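User: Fold this, then the next.

Assistant: Folding the first:
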Amino acid sequence: MAQVAKEKPVTPVTKEKPVTPVAKEKPANTADQLMNAILSSQSKEIQELKEQNKLLIDQNKQKDDFLNIAVHELKSPLQPILLNAELAAKGMIDQTDALKEISDASNKVKDLMSVILDTSKIDREEFELNKSQICINNLLVEAKTMVDCSSEDTVPIVLETDGELFSFVDDVRLTQVFKNILDNAIKFTKKGLIKITSEINVRDQKIVIIFSDTGRGIPSKILPHVFEKYATDKTNNPNGTGLGLYVCKQIIDKHGGTIHAANNN
């Protein structure tokens, strides 16, 4: 009987899938990144230093200009004081007239020294107020009277008040603000009038005081900076110190109020 040979089962061969090579990223160059960061930081610091240096140069120039103006302003009233005293002593002019000239010039010196001292106190943060309950309109009348007495051949000052307006303020400092604003208005108003109004803002119950005049107005380049230190129009006011309105703003700010300037439309 014939035998049938059985074939051995064939074991299937499993083919491995080809492995796709994965590209490895190169490690970041830490040294380059650090150097770029350092250069960027140094560039910013250099720019800041340049800006600070420019600011210091501008401030030093402003201080030099102010010192020159202050010296000139002090010399201006001192000359008539000495001249009138000498002429009166020799009997060359009437003593009453001489005393008036000396008094006016002395007041100019006093005002200039006051604004310089006030600026110094503000810079050292030593500027304090002595507040009490005061009628604001009385201070306006006082400031107007002081200006009327010290100025001749000036435009009229019209005062329109709304009853008795009381507030807790430093009467000396607030009168100083009112007088300074009036002095500026007189200096630049050659015809027309100066008007002062005071009233209560019904909405927020704050006292609003407006000084207006018919003068030529504030130059557009000065207007945005008019309350900043040393801001003055050298063309129309070559001897101005640029400190008066700066001190005024500091006084008003210290009272918790606001002060603004605008030209007539």
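Now the next one, as you asked:
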Amino acid sequence: MLAAEGDPDFDFDTFAGENARADDIIAAANTLPFMAPRRLVIVRDADKMSADELGVLASYAGNPADTACLVLAATSVAKNMKIYKAVDALGGVSEYAAPKKSELPGWAVALFKTKGRALDREGAETLVRAVGKDLRRLESEADKIIAFAGEKTSLGRDDVIAVVTETAPTNIFEFLDALGARDAAAALARLDGLIDGGDTLLGIQAMTLRHLRSLLGIVSFRERGISAGEAARTLKLADWQYRNLARQADRFRADELSAALRAAAEAEGKMKTSQGDPRLVFERFIVSVCDRSGRTVTRTG
């Protein structure tokens, strides 16, 4: 609420930890506010400051100005450091851990709830898969979805797709989903988007290989009678990830996936040794994986 109480041009200072000096930060904190009860001083990436500079700030924390709020934002600060102990003694330490990947759909559901809307689980999973783990972008897309939905309070997958697929750039998961659906046209279109967005062929190929291995693992576990829950734990997949991959695995036989992995290794070799145009080699591989003719996945020669 500090920023709302005063004029940010007069009562707000920000510093970058990589080049900030403790004396300058303290001087800003000791400057009397002009139009607010307290001055707000923020140091971003405070953990990039030297131990000596942080030590000076720790001394300041022993007797801070009562007309300022000094915020030190850091990725990680050891609890045995003077600055951590000094701030903790004031009750000022707050830790905000980013949710794990498996927790993101639940986080998205909770986010929509804070905005007065209800997003179902499928909609949350669709949003996470389209946007990724960038929390700021997830919130930005959530605001767009809510604005597009108007007065509608219960939202789902269709509401997400109506907005996110039109505004978010192609991501690797859209490509992998198209590959898992054995939709060659969609996979090649998503590949174009990835390359236009700066992704490398070898990076995409590595993710493709990992995806195919997961699909083969699911098919193999099924054939051995292993439960979905145990398979998900063994493959280190969240429940929603497993459900999505399981739907894709339904479209493949184990021998097709085994052949696809062999073809992927061969394609990678050709791409790395310039045996033909790398993109053409990979595109042929994609088409072979998506082949629904009933034949085993062909080699890329």
